[in-house]
Fold:
Amino acid sequence: MASPQTIWYNYDKNLVETIDQRYLPFQNLIVEISTLDEARRAITGMIVRGAPLIGVTAAFGMYLAARNFSGADFLADMNKAADWLKSSRPTAVNLAFAVDEALSVISEKCSIPQNNQQLFAFAETLKQREIEFSNKIGVHGLELIKATSETKKGKPVQILTHCNAGRLATIELGTATAPIYLAHLAGIAVHVWVDETRPRNQGARLTAWELGEAGIPYTIIPDNTGGHLMQHGMVDMVIVGSDRTTLNGDVANKIGTYLKALAAADNGIPFYVALPSTTIDWNLNDGVAEIPIEQRDDSEVSVMEGLLGNQVHQFRIIPEKSPVANYGFDVTPARLVTGLVTERGICKASREGILELFPEKRLKND
Ligand code: MRU
Structure:
């Protein structure tokens, strides 16, 4: 499905452009990125966000670092650029993978202009790969929705999602939203319960905006509503995205995902995680112990943003100087995950399940 992308290279201006996600849904602004530092700032400042988009932005950041190189030691500078980018956000593994893969396309045997070209080609290839993966996730996930729709004799399939794993986070189509878009296009009735996703409200602000643009019925719910809806038979399935999934199937995703998985398990509701293989951390097993969880600024909790008239304003919503804890992600253990929807198909959230779909990742002793 053709849909507007969230990052692209502007050949007239010779720079990267992206949607500034901080201002949606109130304003749709474009940001220009022409240096490594601007790419990093886009990631830390959440101008771009969502694991696949962060990875692609970092890949373009590596290209821009190479293009603007003016020092003495190209390789040393590129290694520094890689570390600088990798330190921008710790949880989404696509970032580190994209940067390491970018480093691996640099060759000492090539001239700097040739290396620049290779880095640019890599960033574009990674972007295309993410788009293709989202499409395939959509095709596989569609089968789940279709089956539920048949069981419900065409009544709307009620899907709950958390945060934004839509096209804004993934360049096109989305991961969690891809099956929903394809179901809608296929004429299957769906309705999406959109968790607001405090503290930054990616659900209420971004997922709702995307679904609205696509004409897909949705309802925004406060984060703590899901359990109640599940108890009353108002949710048929949960589909969320992931920022990092370990080889044994533990899923890091936006804070609050774990509680949805617990509620789904208690109510016998399938809980699916849609993710491209670029989000699988092949080196980790125990997600709770091993995945680094980003802690973000207190102001995300203490201040809310909204429209007053037609002006965007910020409001403090808690007592002054209140201590705040702001963990960006949590880990849902594999046992609570019904299935992983990947570009190669749907598998159990387990080492065996994942390796059956990705046999090339088997080690000799697997
Ligand atoms: O902190 P963010 O907004 O970058 O968080 C990422 C997310 O949007 C989600 O956790 C998402 O569900 C996975 S990324 C497709």
Observations:
- The chain has two domains: 7-129, 136-365.
- The longest helix spans residues 112-151.
- Residues 49-51, 163-165, 169-170, 175, 202, 240-243, 253-254, 328 surround MRU (CB under 6 Å).
